[in-house]
Amino acid sequence: MLFHVEMTVKIPHDFPVEKADAIKAAEKAYAQDLQRQGKWVHLWRVAGRYSNVSIFDVESVDELHTLLSSLPLFPFMDITVTALARHPSAI
Ligand SMILES: O=C(O)C[C@H]1C=CC(=O)O1
Fold first, then answer.
1. Fewer CB atoms inside 10 Å of the end CB: C or N, the chain?
2. Cβ of residue 9 lying under 6 Å from some atom of ligand 1
3. Is the CB of 67 under 6 A from ligand 1?
4. Percentage of the chain surpassing pLDDT 70?
């Protein structure tokens, strides 16, 4: 099952920089592991924003929720999920 996911990161301005850097490093390792597993198949930066547009390929909505809610940056993110169906004109 494919899902379009948009994530916007909002870390409070008064959050300690060292803690934020540690969370970002953990996020990067987690994201790269999911990409190597083939679950996080696209990861694009939205130009000019601390946001990304991603495509996930997972077995179920429950799996997607588990993956997303395990993101180290999850407490600092607004996330929008859109389920994707095959377009009839796609080849
Ligand atoms: O930077 C982001 O968009 C947030 C998050 C998503 C992947 C990652 O490494 O960090």
1. C
2. yes
3. no
4. 100
ipTM of this complex: 0.97
7 lines ligand 1 (CB under 6 A): yes
pLDDT > 90 in the chain, percent: 100
Query: CA-to-CA distance for 42 and 81, rounded, in angstroms?
Result: 14
Count of beta carbons in the 10 Å neighbourhood of residue 40:
20
Tokens representing 36? 């190597």
- For residue 26, give every residue at least 6 positions away whose Cβ sits within 8 Å of its Cβ, in sequence order, or none: 72
pLDDT band at 86 (very low <50, low <70, confident <90, very high): very high
Phi, psi of 25 (to 5 degrees): -65, -40
